[in-house]
Write a structure and sequence with these properties.
This protein is an all-alpha fold. The chain is built from 10 helices and no strands. Among the domains are: 80 residues, NADH-ubiquinone/plastoquinone oxidoreductase chain 6, subunit NuoJ (Four Helix Bundle (Hemerythrin (Met), subunit A), Up-down Bundle), CATH 1.20.120; 38 residues.
Length: 214
């Protein structure tokens, strides 16, 4: 067994263990951390298989954005773990059935093997010896240039719309304009009111005087 095969089995074992712990961990934060470990091991396996673009995409998109967002959301929410456990045995038969079906399908695929009638053709003659990422980049920006531009425009519109919805003025917002704070003066915040040092005592009421005479 060579070094590459040894690393493949190592990454596979860690991937299977982390995937198992994702569904068995009682703490949601630990489950998210195990899922991040599973994604990192899958990325390493893709590197061994020569799909470096997919490996880098998995690290940047899932580990760098999606899973970090999930981790912050899970840590910020007050999740009652005891309440979540109450419905475990209620949904266990359906989950076990679906798991058995998926396991049988995977076993059938692995037992039949992966057979190819012919070797896959190269992307282009000039990029036959290029790396996976370079070949994909040349293919995207030559034959699929227009769909890439349309997708980029749609993503730009979505980003601008999300920013516009976030920055809209609301009545319950307590945001303060920094430019107003910089231009503030002491006279705008403090006003001095002239108050007399002493005041005359109020005149006695007639009813009080009558009571005193009695």
């Amino acid at each position: 067994m060579d070094v590459k095969t040894g690393f493949f089995y190592l990454f596979s074992v860690v991937l299977m263990f982390s995937a198992f712990r994702v569904v068995t961990a009682r703490n949601p934060v630990h489950a998210v951390l195990y899922l991040m470990l599973a994604f990192s091991q899958a990325s390493a396996i893709w590197l061994l298989l020569g799909a470096e673009f997919l490996a880098i995409t998995l690290v940047l998109v899932y580990l760098g954005a999606v899973m970090v967002l999930f981790l912050f959301v899970v840590m910020m929410l007050d999740i009652n773990i005891d309440t979540l456990r109450q419905g475990f045995w209620k949904h266990f038969p359906l989950a076990a059935t679906l798991g058995a079906i998926v396991a049988l399908e995977m076993a059938a695929v692995l037992m039949s093997g992966f057979r190819l009638s012919q070797a896959p053709a190269a992307v282009a003659g000039s990029v036959a010896q290029a790396s996976n990422a370079k070949a994909l980049g040349i293919l995207l920006y030559t034959e699929y240039l227009m769909p890439i531009q349309i997708a980029a425009a749609i993503l730009l519109v979505a980003m601008v719309a999300a920013i516009a919805l976030t920055l809209r003025e609301r009545k319950d917002s307590k945001a303060i304009n920094p430019s107003i704070q910089v231009r503030v003066r002491a006279a705008d915040r403090l006003s001095v009111v002239q108050v007399a040092a002493t005041q005359a005592a109020p005149a006695p009421v007639a009813a009080d005087a009558a009571q005193e005479n009695k």
